[in-house]
Amino acid sequence: MFLIVNRSKNRGVPLRLMAGLVLMLSGAVPSLRAQGGDFDEYKVRFFTFWFNAKPSGSIHGTLDTGNIDLKKDLGLPAYSTFVGKVDWKFTRKNHLYLAASPFNQSREIALHRTITFQGQTFGVGLTARSQFDNIYWTVGYQYDILRRRRGHLGIGLQMSLFDITAKIQAQAQTLNGVALPAVSASKTLLAPIPSAGPEFRIYPLNTPRLFVEGNVYGMYLFGYGNFISSGGTIGVALTRRLSINGGYLLGSRLAVKNTNNRLGVRFTQQGPIAGIEFSF
Question: Please, what are the domains in the chain?
Answer without folding.
Answer: 43-279 (2.40.128.90)
